[in-house]
Design brief:
With 68 residues, the chain is mainly α. It is 65% helix and 0% strand. It is built from three helices and no strands. The chain has helices at 9-28, 33-51, 55-59. α1 (9-28) packs antiparallel against α2. It is elongated.
Length: 68
């Protein structure tokens, strides 16, 4: 594997739900710049939730604490 997961399970679930909500908003009001931004943000949130790896969290050095 090329990456190590750095997003805990509870946060992954929240990211998936919030990403799907943002994608739903973007689909309902497509055409406005706000909807396009929400669609891009929703896609990123959903993908980081599904994969379990967030590049921005990796940049700041966040690691998944497996001891808890």
């Amino acid at each position: 594997m090329f990456y190590s997961k750095n997003v805990p399970a509870w946060e992954r679930a929240v990211r998936i739900v919030m990403g799907l909500m943002a994608l739903g908003f973007a689909a309902m009001s497509w055409g406005s710049p706000l909807a396009m931004g929400a669609g891009i943000m929703g896609a990123m949130l959903s993908m980081t939730g599904l994969v379990g790896f967030c590049p921005m969290c990796a940049l700041v050095g966040r690691k998944l604490n497996k001891g808890r």
